[in-house]
Amino acid sequence: MESQIGRDGEPGLPRREPDLADVATFTLDSGGRVTSWSVTATRLFGHPARAAIGQDVCDVLMTGPGQRQLVGHALAEAAAGRVWSATVAGAGLGEGRFGIRWEPLAGLGGGVVVIAQRASPQQGHSWLSEAAARIGTTLDLTQTAREVADVAVPGFADAVAIFGSERLLAADEFTSPQAGHGAVVRRLAARLDGQGTAVTDSLLRPGEVLVFGADSPSCHAMATGEPVLYEKLDDETAERLARRPGGPEAAASYTSFLAVPLIAREAVVGCATFGRGPASPAFSPGDIALAGELASRAAVCIDNARLYDRERRTALALQRGLLPGRPEVPAGMEVTHFYLPVGDSVVGGDWHDIVPLPGGRAVLIVGDAMGHGPEAAAVMVQLRAAAHTLAGLDLPPGQVLARLDQLAAGMAAPFATCIYAVIDPAASSCLIAQAGHLPPVLGLPGGATKVLDLPPGLPLGLAAESFEATPVSLPPGATLALYTDGLVESRTRPLDDGLAALCEVLGAALAAPRAVLGDASEMVTAALRQHGEDDITLILARIRP
Fold first, then answer.
1. pLDDT at 124
2. pLDDT of residue 155
3. How far, in Å, CA of 54 to CA of 34, rounded?
4. Which domains can be identified in the chain, with CATH numbers?
5. pLDDT at res. 471
6. pLDDT tens, 403-456?
7. Which residues of the chain have pLDDT under 50?
8. β-strand 97-104 against 362-369: which pairing, if any?
9. CA nearest 269: which of 104, 155, 141?
10. Angstrom distance (rounded) from CA 403 to CA 408
11. Using an 8 Å Cβ cutoff, are 89 and 62 in contact?
12. Spatial contact of 61 and 93, defined as CB atoms under 8 Å apart
């Protein structure tokens, strides 16, 4: 394939106007409905955006014989993460043959970016296809903006700055700037041809929030949704640059500017500002159309990254809010706890709690809602809150589990397990009840350990009639270990082997005189978590001598 050559003989975006008239882009959701429609798509196919968006592409363009099947195949290829291309003609496409390229659209809802170009005898991949391959390779907002900058410089311009609407990025407000009012934006990325990253970032700092004045070309572009061509920097931008080392020289290096709005899903999500120096030709009307095509692709990718970043931040904030607070441990006890969710989650289906009771006693609770991730976390937080409240009422362990069982029966999760222990330092004992949970392990001074044989009970949510509580002697210096199955069981390690490993490592950790519970917890989890495939929780508790 013959390569496209940009300015100064370097590979990049071609500057030939005839190509622009024959190239269009639009996006589809995973079902084939149009979700965005560029200006050039309107010019090339005759359908305005308002008539195309929301329609099945087979009712707008691909209306010819066999083209519905072709669309189905292209969508299936994109859903599998593959790029698919074909040459088609006729029906809703109008006159001529078109090379159409379908590229997977990474994002929350999936879908495809469609790049259509009128075919010609010597035509290879269009410039937009080459640019599209370099933009949107990740869902990282900053990286996506950098990819746009790298495509633009030096192939199309000598300088570029990519801005996102601050109200959209920070507060998710789709409010386009209005004429006569300024625009608050955040600089996402910038690039200056011939300058290193350090120099560029010192002049045009990534992440900097600034205000475009109402009279600035960039604000005008965002307010009107139309590109603005101008010959010198506005006074506000020039003054801002002048306050930084090398800024006046940098501002004087460019003699032609172009501000293009970034529009995605019919909303202005930002702005791209391009600059060229005296050695390059000034921006022409053809360049405006070319920049518009680049901006259309960039806007969709940047907005996808914005949506992903918003969902990721929301999920992390919610999950952190589900984490338990700092437990209150009675003076006569020592307690240490460890929690590790599986995968990238901050919190999953495991929970643990320590609730002080009158007389120096305390309740230790460990539970495990089936599954992991946000679904299990939603069940877990309800059970944890209910268990904490019931424990504070100082009810017998069996009654607490019975009430939790009733609560779990009305939830979407099939079941959860729980172990509930009331420790009484004054009596050197504890009272334990289980709901389908793995048995506790008792570690004695000197390193001896044993798995306690207690009535297992049924998991919560299965309408068990009762839960039996068993008294257990817990002399000073003895350690009680409560845990979830993620610590001892996996597909590569049977439960019996995991329990044996827990006893062995815990015994070794407690064998030393004056063994520290925190150190013992680290030794146990470090040794056993290697096979972990589920959330892991471990509580170690003992009565102070």
1. 31
2. 77
3. 5
4. 137-285+299-322 (3.30.450.40), 326-543 (3.60.40.10)
5. 96
6. 999 998 887 666 899 999 999 999 999 999 999 999 999 998 888 999 999 999
7. 1-19, 120-125
8. unpaired
9. 141
10. 9
11. no
12. yes
Output Rg (C-alpha) for the chain, integer angstroms: 32
What is the length of the chain? 545
Report how far residue 205's alpha carbon sits from residue 428's, in angstroms, rounded to the nearest whole number. 63
Q: Which residues contact 273 (CB under 8 A, 6 or more apart)?
A: 160, 161, 163, 217, 218, 257, 258, 259, 260
If you search the block for the tokens 């020289």, which residue do you land on? 249
Residue with tokens 């390193």: 447
Per-position DSSP letters for 422-486, written without gaps between them: EEEGGGTEEEEEEEBPPPPEEE-TTS-EEE------PPBTS--S---EEEEE--TT-EEEEE-HH
> CB atoms < 10 A from the CB of 77, how many?
17
Cβ neighbours of residue 200 closer than 8 Å, sequence gap 6 or more: 190, 191, 192
Joined tokens for residue 465: 């009639």
Residue among 41, 40, 45, 115 at smallest CA distance from 84: 115
Give the residue among 127, 151, 157 at the shortest CA–CA distance from 283: 157
Q: Label the pairing between strands 183-192 and 159-165.
A: antiparallel
pTM of the complete model beyond 0.70: no
Question: What's the rounded Cα separation, in Å, for the pair 534 and 490?
Answer: 8
Q: Residue 34 gets which letter from DSSP?
A: E
